[in-house]
Amino acid sequence: MISKKTFNLYPNLLIIVSILFLTTCGKWGWEDVTSDHEPVLNVFALISLDTTIQSFVRVHQTLDLQSPTVEFIRKDTIWHGDNPNDYWTHNVYESKYLVKDATVTISDGTNNCIFSYVNLDHDYYWDEQAIYIDTLNKFHPKSNTKYFLNVSTPDGKQLTGEVTTPPIPVIYSEQIPDTLYIKKTFTVTWKPLETVHSLIRTSSILYWICGSEQRCVMEPGDSVWTSSIVDCHYYENESSEPDSLMIELRTLDDNYYEYFLKHAWEDEFVSFLLGGGNPGLALGVEGGYGVFGAIAADRVYRIVVP
After folding, report:
1. Which of 42, 124, 140, 191 lies 20 to 30 Å from 182, alpha-carbon distance?
2. One domain for residues 127 and 215
3. Could you say which DSSP state residue 290 is in?
4. What is the mean pLDDT of each run of 10 residues along the chain (306 residues)?
5. Are residues 180 and 225 in the same domain?
6. 93 touches 20 (CB < 8 A)
């Protein structure tokens, strides 16, 4: 399990775990096959220029038809009583799709940064993550910069990738009133983003308010978004207290946009921004499946009145 010490060293790991919970509806990155094939790597690599999310690389692999999909790890006691024979145990398994012994590097063409495996055993019965991060805090990505990914394993598998990070968005916060009313529309403007897609979303902070959860994918060149008024007459028991509203604008590189939004397969898994993902694609990577993507973000906070 993730130790308290680990979170003290890498506080953004909690964000990564939350991301991965949302991206594992079904078998994220686990390629089901109908005929025998040579196993290859299946990677989700994310360069984040968002201070709330740490850059990471998740490394899985495909399996041939003869390979088992799970491996028994141990027996854990999940309950015990006063008597020696009063206890329950449960078998703990690990997915064979995971790759925990890879060598993972990200480079800007001059400086190489090694990403190391970190144990993110988030579930009591299953360990379904193989996450690599910059444990030495040497990776500080820049916007509008090309980066190169290299993932290799002791048994000879190799995957490479390339991505150009998006610009960091700038919301014109001075144009947003200090107090917003959920039953009235409001407009958000930002510095125009000519070459990349972006995603704007709003969310209340302390508790759920009907109409506060809104999101929209914006096309390159867009710089204005106006909220919608949601019919909330079905929610009679919601709080009438003011709350804080987060207004978040994310920029998405082309690889991320195409994998999670444009070519998404519904019900395969949900990205932590919006939409699904297509595990049969290779976007920004060669030598296997997956995606090498990048995001950036800006946020402002306002008081919102239901």
Report:
1. 191
2. no
3. E
4. 39 48 38 62 94 92 72 72 76 79 96 91 55 94 98 96 98 97 95 95 91 93 94 69 95 93 53 42 92 96 94
5. yes
6. no
**Which sign does the torsion angle of CA 102, 106, 109, 111 carry?**
negative
- Reported as a single tens digit per residue, the pLDDT across 269-296 is 333 333 334 456 889 999 999 999 999 9
pTM over the 0.85 mark: no
Count of domains for the chain: 2
**Residue 262 CA to chain centroid, in angstroms?**
17
Q: What values do phi and psi take at 220, rounded to 5?
A: -55, 135
Confirm whether 80 is domain-assigned: no
CA neighbor of 250 nearest in space, from 24, 7, 53, 79: 53
Same-domain pairing of 144 and 274: yes
Residues 52, 141 within the same domain:
yes
Domain of 240?
173-251+299-305
Same domain, 130 and 179: no
Rounded Cα gap, residues 60 and 71, in angstroms: 15
Smallest CA-to-CA distance from 202 within 167, 230, 239 is with: 230
